[in-house]
């Protein structure tokens, strides 16, 4: 019973970044010079992302640590979070008598053009997921906005009859309508602003930035397609 209570509470554990949090000045941190003037603020510095990820890894290990896991990394935005999360789980595994054999599989979703979500969601690499049958699946996403993508993906994965599906999302945007479908493990709840960095892009730019930052209006015009 205690386990059930802990599991159902997990989805509400997150670091909340308020709407009126101005973030840190970009000049207080190292960042690539080619993005000078393109960023309004740093809202989550890289070190904080890493510390939070370490804790999410422990929560995941506590909940799933007695079965094999198939990690389903949602590209492209999820590659950095997934790599770091898997690293942290591996570190826990090699320092404990409880270890999880892990497999990592990659799928790609694309639904954004400029800073707008488009209607058509493409899933690539998810055609044959029959190997998920009977497995514990951990879907790893960088960001959950409307929750529409997550819902579509969950429905798709459920079709392959895994034993259990959990979702880890580094960021959840605070929107009035996304409460129905939230990840089981959440890093940060953030304001409804377009963010970049740590593999999150704006038209493929900014993946090569370590911190999670708010993009400037100027940069939205500069990199528009
Ligand atoms: N930034 C980058 N990619 C995204 C975002 C965002 O804020 N929301 C959904 N995909
Ligand atoms: Mg993108």
Beta-strand content estimate: 25-35%
Work out the helix count: 5
Strand order of the largest sheet: 1-8-7-6-3-4-5
Whole-Å distance between the termini? 53 Å
The overall pLDDT average reads: 89
How would you classify the helix and strand content by structural class? alpha/beta
Major sheet details: 7 strands, mixed
Shape: globular
Order of helices and strands: HEEHEHEEEHEEEEH
Q: What is the count of β-strands?
A: 10
Explain briefly what this protein structure is.
By secondary structure, this protein is of the alpha/beta class.
Could you walk me through the main structural features you see in this protein, from its secondary elements to its overall organization?
The protein is α/β, with parallel strands linked by helices and 225 residues long. Helix content is 27%, strand content 30%. The chain contains five helices and ten strands, in the order αββαβαβββαββββα. It has a seven-stranded mixed beta sheet, sandwiched between helices. Strands 2-10-9 form a three-stranded antiparallel beta sheet. Helix 4 links the parallel strand 6 and strand 7. Helix 2 crosses helix 3. It starts with a helix and ends with a helix. Hypoxanthine (HPA) binds next to strand 9.
Which tags fit this structure?
single chain, 225 residues, alpha/beta, 7-stranded mixed β-sheet, 3-stranded antiparallel β-sheet, 10 strands, disordered N terminus, binds hypoxanthine, binds magnesium ion
